[in-house]
Amino acid sequence: MVHVTRGFTGRHPATDDRLPPGQYLTDDFPVLSAGPTPAIRRDEWTFSVTDGDQALRSWTWDEFMALPSEDITVDIHCVTRWSRLDTTWRGVAIDDLLADVDTAAEYVLARSYGGYTTNLPLEDLLDGKAWIAYEHDGEDLPAEHGGPARLLVPHLYLWKSAKWIKSLDLVEDDDPGFWESLGYHDYGDPWREQRYQGD
């Protein structure tokens, strides 16, 4: 079942060259989830990075909050065709989390509390392209938007920005995640309209 924010007002005219093809602008932030919102207490939250069977790093909430963070302003694009421009976030760059990690892996499987997964090329999380975000619009990230923390990969469709992030697993094979195994595109570039397999 997919959950959608009440009060979602729908389409605004597309007038910005930052809008990918097939998208429309909204000022709302619709909530779209594959299932119920998990309740994750910060004192029980952990985030880890693994490589195959090896656990490389792990942080508690307090340890994660002690890491260097960044303010981020990005456009986001949902596969359901809405886009929001200039959204503001705060989080930790994946570059910092993977600093000094030596791996042969070329892909990542992002895992969430609640069982959700999504697959991405490792290179799409590096070089300032992705973060673990824990604030939105200057406030703690609400649970319905992935709080306490979510992956943020704004250059891909938003389903790749896994909510309720639990771990990043560095892997050698590009195995499909939840939506990908149900027919969504393995990569999900909004500028190429890669919504579904074959696009």
Automatic annotation (TrEMBL):
<protein>
    <submittedName>
        <fullName>Sulfite oxidase-like oxidoreductase</fullName>
    </submittedName>
</protein>
<dbReference type="Pfam" id="PF00174">
    <property type="entry name" value="Oxidored_molyb"/>
</dbReference>
<dbReference type="InterPro" id="IPR000572">
    <property type="entry name" value="OxRdtase_Mopterin-bd_dom"/>
</dbReference>
<feature type="region of interest" description="Disordered">
    <location>
        <begin position="1"/>
        <end position="20"/>
    </location>
</feature>
<dbReference type="InterPro" id="IPR036374">
    <property type="entry name" value="OxRdtase_Mopterin-bd_sf"/>
</dbReference>
<feature type="domain" description="Oxidoreductase molybdopterin-binding">
    <location>
        <begin position="35"/>
        <end position="179"/>
    </location>
</feature>
